[in-house]
């Protein structure tokens, strides 16, 4: 047990004790700060991943309205609360943390096309990289994520139980 000398105010001891702890900033569904280890890593992985724009994906999904292509799978890799607020029409939810374990049951054919998306396109780049490394041949990340989709004025599906 430490003994504090009476000449040092207790507030100074508390301040000194907390000053040595690093500050932890958490980012949920937000674009990570530039020049971070995370964005540096994503930037390193990005060139190996094909990206598809919101307009391109929408064109593929709406070639035949009411009958999206059977060999095109759109996977949402965001957090459950993000999915519950809104998501792309006809998307399948699989969180980023369970993607590798669930993918074979969701998309058994490694020749099918897969588009993964998140909020802004960072997590989906990493998810696409994992799927590519697992042997899936036609994997794409939605450039800019669902933010770009909504920014293009394209429709989203909303959970009727969530009030935004």
Characterization of this structure:
The chain has 164 residues and is of the alpha/beta class. The chain has one domain (37-158): Rhodanese-like domain (Oxidized Rhodanese, domain 1), CATH 3.40.250. The protein is built from seven helices and seven strands; from the N terminus they run ααβαβαββαβαβαβ. The chain has helices at 10-19, 37-45, 54-61, 80-85, 99-106, 122-133, 145-151; strands at 50-52, 72-76, 86-87, 92-93, 113-117, 138-142, 157-158. It has a five-stranded parallel β-sheet. A two-stranded antiparallel ribbon has the order 3-7. Strand 5 (113-117), helix 6 (122-133) and strand 6 (138-142) form a beta-alpha-beta unit. 24% of the residues are buried.
Report strand order across the widest sheet.
1-6-5-2-4
Low-confidence stretches: 1-6, 10-19
Provide the CATH top-level class.
Alpha Beta
* Class derived from helix and strand content: alpha/beta
Give the number of DSSP strands: 7
Radius of gyration, rounded?
21 Å
Estimate what percentage of residues fall within beta strands. 5-15%
Query: What is the CATH architecture assignment?
Result: 3-Layer(aba) Sandwich
Looking at CATH, which topology would you report? Oxidized Rhodanese, domain 1
**How would the global form be characterised?**
globular
Secondary-structure element order, as H and E? HHEHEHEEHEHEHE
- The count of helical stretches stands at 7
From the N-terminal CA to the C-terminal CA, the straight-line distance is 51 Å
Q: Quaternary status of these chains?
A: single chain
Number of domains: 1
Biggest beta sheet summary: 5 strands, parallel
Round the mean pLDDT to the nearest integer and report it: 84
């Amino acid at each position: 047990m430490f003994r504090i000398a009476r000449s040092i105010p207790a507030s100074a001891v508390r301040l000194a004790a907390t000053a040595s702890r690093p500050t932890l900033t958490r980012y949920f569904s937000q674009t990570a700060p530039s020049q971070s280890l995370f964005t540096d890593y994503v930037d390193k992985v990005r060139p190996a991943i094909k990206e598809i724009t919101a307009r391109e994906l929408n064109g593929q999904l709406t070639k035949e309205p009411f009958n999206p292509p059977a060999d095109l799978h759109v996977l949402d890799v965001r957090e459950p609360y993000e999915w519950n607020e809104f998501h792309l029409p006809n998307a399948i939810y699989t969180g980023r943390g369970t993607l590798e374990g669930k993918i074979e049951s969701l998309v058994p054919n490694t020749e099918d096309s897969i588009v993964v998306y998140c909020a802004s396109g960072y997590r989906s780049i990493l998810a696409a990289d994992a799927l590519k490394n697992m042997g899936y041949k036609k994997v794409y990340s939605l450039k800019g994520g669902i933010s770009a989709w909504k920014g293009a004025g394209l429709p989203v599906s909303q959970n009727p139980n969530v009030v935004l």
